[in-house]
Every structure is written in C-alpha cells, then in structure tokens.
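can u pls check wat happens w/ magnesium ion
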Amino acid sequence: MSRVHDGLPASEGITFGRVRILEWEAPDVPHLTLDQDQAEVEVERFHAARDWSRERLGELQEKVSQRLGSMEARIFDPQLLMLDDVEVVEGTVRYIRENRLSAARAFQWRMLELQTRWVRTANPMVLDRLNDLEDLQIRVLRRLMGLPDAGEVASDGEITIMVARNLTPTLVVQMDPDHVRGLATDQGTRTSHWAILARSLEIPAVVGLVDLYRSATEGEDAILDGRIGRIILDPTERDQDVYRRRQIRIQEWEGELVQLSQEDAVTLDGQPVSLRANLDLPGEAGRALEHGAEGVGLFRTEFLVVGRSGMPGEEEQYQAYKHVAETFPNRAVFIRTFDLGGDKFPMFLHMPAEENPFLGWRAIRVCLDRLELFRPQLRAILRATAHGDIRILLPLVNDVEEVVRVRELLGEEEAALKRDGIPFSSGYKLGALIETPAAALDAAELARHCDFFSIGTNDLVQYTLAVDRTNARLAHLYNPFHPSVVRQLHQVSRVSRAAGIEVSVCGEMAANPLGAFLLLGLDIDALSVAWPSLPEVKKVVRSFRIEDARTAARKALAAPTSRDVTACLAEGIGSAVDLYAFSGRWSLSLP
Ligand code: PEP
Ligand code: MG
C-alpha cells in the first residue's frame, strides 16, 4: 500500500525519485568554562567565525546572483544582517566575557534566547526568519567547532527527493538540481525563502507535510507532485501509471512550448480566452512570455518587502514594474499592491503579533494605514504606466471606501509627478481583488468604483469556508468547488457583465482543468495562472466547447454538494480532457 501525504504546493513539477532524509541540526556544543585569560581569544574566534560566515554567504549570494539574478540573491540579506546585529554580537561577546563561556556555547545561548523570544510571536513570517536564524546558527557553530560546512550534500547520481523537517536557502542553493529533483518538508510555507529559491531553480517542492519526516524511510521510492502538494511514498503500480502519464504529458508540452505559445487560447467552438501569468518575481516575466502568457494577471510585489530590513525605494520598484511592463508590450500587466500581513510580516513594519493574522491587519488595510510605504509604491506604479498597459490591483478589498481612498491618493501622486515633470500615462486602470464574501456579495457597489475585478479564489475559498489555506491538516476541507464558492463566482461574474467591466480569476483554481472549465462556463473573461501551468491550461481550453462549459456551470450552480459540483463538471468535460493525467487534488480524487 502506498502512503499518501498531502501538504501545500510550493514549487511546480512532478518527480519520481528515491527518498533521502536530510538531517541538519545544530551540533552538540560541549559546556566548557574558560580560564579568565582565554576570554579575549574566544571573542576573537567568534569574530573570525563571523567573518568567515559573511564570506561564505557572499559566495552563495554570488552563485545565486549569477544563476538567477540579483533580486533572488537578496534572499541572503537577512542572514547577513543578523551576523552584524547588535543583539546577536554584543549578547554573545557578553556571555563570553561575563559568563566565561566558549564562543560556541555563548553564541548558541544567545541564538536560543532570540529564538525563544521570536517563537512566542508565532506568526509565520517570524517563523521564516527563525529559519534564517537557524541556518546562520548552524554555519557559525560548525565553523567554531572545526566541522565542515553543513549542507554539502553529496550526490549519489540518483534522482533524489529530499525529505527534511525544514530547509534553508543556503541548503537549497548548494543542492545539485540535476539530481535533487524534489523537496518535501514538514514545516515551511510557500513564502519561505528556500521555497522561493526552489521555484526559481525549478525544483519541485511541497511544504507543510506535518509528519513526513518521521514516516519516510531513507532510500524508498516516492512520487512528488509540486502542483497539488502531494508526496506518495512507496507508490503502487497505478500511482506510477497516473503520474507517469501526467509527467509525460507535461514533458511533451514543454517540448511543444514554442509551437503552443503561438497557438491561440481558444475553445473548440471558437471562444477566445485571455490567459495571463501570475508572477512572484520580475525575473519570471521572460519565462512567462515563453510559456505563452498574454500578459500578467497578477504580479505579486511582496518580494520587494519580505526579508528586508527597510522599505523598498521608489526607484527599485519602478525598475521592477517597468521590466515586467516592457516584457509584455501592449498586454495588460496587473500589479498588485503590497499584500502584507497574513503570512508575510516584514520586520521594518513592526507589526504587532496578532491572534488571527489572516483576519487581521492585512493587505490594503496595512497600506492605507502606512502611507510612507504605500505612496512610493503608487508613485512607482504610476511611473511604470509610461511603459505599458498597467492595471493596479488592490488586495483584500472589503469596502467601497478603500477604493475611493486609493483613487484620491493616486490623484495626489499624479499631481506630484506632473509637478516634477515625470512622465506617466493616466490611461491606467484600478480594480479590486475579490477575496472575501463581503466583496463578492457587495460586488455591485464595488463595480461602480472599479475598472475591473480579479477574483482571488485562494483567499475567497479560505474566507468563505473558514478554512486556513496554510493549514495542511485542513487541506481536504479546502474545496474551491464548494457550492457557496461557485455561487459567489457566479454572482461576481454576473455583476461584472452588467457593469461592463472585465472579470478575471487569478487564484490557483484557474489552473485546475475542472476549475478552468467551470470559470469559463460562468463567463469569466480571463484566467491568470502560475506561469509553468500556462501550457497545460491552454491545452485544456483548446479541448472543450464553451457551450458545454456553460451547460455544466448551470448544472454546477444547482448542485447541492461539492462532490455534486465536481461530478457535473467531470461529466460536462467528458472525455475531452483526461482528468487523471491532469493536475489537481480535486480531479485526482474523482470517483
Ligand atoms: C488569491 O488569494 O487567490 C491570490 C491570487 O492571491 P494570493 O494567493 O497571493 O493571496
Ligand atoms: Mg490573496
């Protein structure tokens, strides 16, 4: 019997490989008390270990910079900052001098103290920082104890799926991507620095697997699907068959990329569909274009903020937005304003710990409260309007007033740009992400103030069903085909049509074949998906008739349960699409 573990998808792709358990832990540090005269020697040793670590991090940063670009290389900034952090350095030196501890012991104590303090806040962004802290701690301790640097994982030439409690950016960057073709961790989130790096390196990854580390066995066969967030240990023949078919299909599409990217996204009966890409980093724009994106439906801008010690400057932002706009001339580029809070807490905002961060100070709420962060972003986006068809997308809008306020701010920033003689185009559009039931139910009011809507189903599902999207334990309850979600999608689509504004969907539901079928059947105008999914979605779109999708959507709207919704859609799409070969937890668990 195979053992299936479901977690959260973090980096696309399917891998068949052997499990390798990766243990990286802080070494045991012996407790030694120093003689009085040794203290200064230990202080020196500590500083030397810091210097060496800085150099080592610099080398890794350079490696990433060459392979992936300078933006990605900034992932190491937090560790470099911690190396010089007064709390870290002075605290350690004090323990050496006052408590006569060895440099290793003193450093370990200090890091433990900081970890304990941070753990108490228990928000995911701080947990990501803890991950950086641990990485640094291990590196410095191993240096002080004369051990080789951690993470130099020897390759045995086999295709490997690394299983670990958690990973770090430095571990990931040291892995050989020709052999390490899968990463599976108990902890971590999609926004963990190492997960962002895995996406850039195109290594499939699944996070939040809770107890995989305990149940996986070194050397056993496994299949990892980074799209749906699943790992199958000791897979059966049938599992092998399903995933082989899917993998072969994806490889074929990769082979056909050039040809496919030139084909139109159009249904069998001639209905054109706009297929756009979701980007997490500006560097992905080129790949998205190669994959056939007709614009960018969601450019997440948190990369400019997460893990930074200070607010991003206007010029840096402008360059990033301009780069994406210029990659897609004459195509829509939806730039989402900072979606902070929830699972992303930049240190410099000093966000208070919250009981329910996803119901807390998040997204547009943060931006409207912190204009010193928001205004430079609006200005940078306005400047980018001179280089393309820019749409400004506001996350987690609940109220008309939020949109009205942003329009006012934009007006002020436009006036300032004019005064300064800086070019921009006033032809940009402003719209809302529909991510809460409040926004969906109030869409008619919002439509009077918005130039477009984009439905963020990842959040809409979470808030409608009261199921935390980052909780792997509840993953089976997180169902975008719940009738309550389907009805809201229908409502927003209807309202948009009546108001004459475009409505798109940029949540992961759009990348699922049944999801795309339903959404187009509900008359959603455009779909935006993670760029690696574009060929697959285009294939799906080209294989059914819009009339069949509309009929199935009508039936789905009347279906009493999620299972019935999925059944209507599966029946409607029929044999046009081999659902078992396609992605999606929901299609794989069909009857
Ligand atoms: C969404 O909520 O569906 C969405 C696209 O935004 P994110 O996943 O970044 O929250
Ligand atoms: Mg969202």
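The first strand starts at residue 3 and ends at 6.
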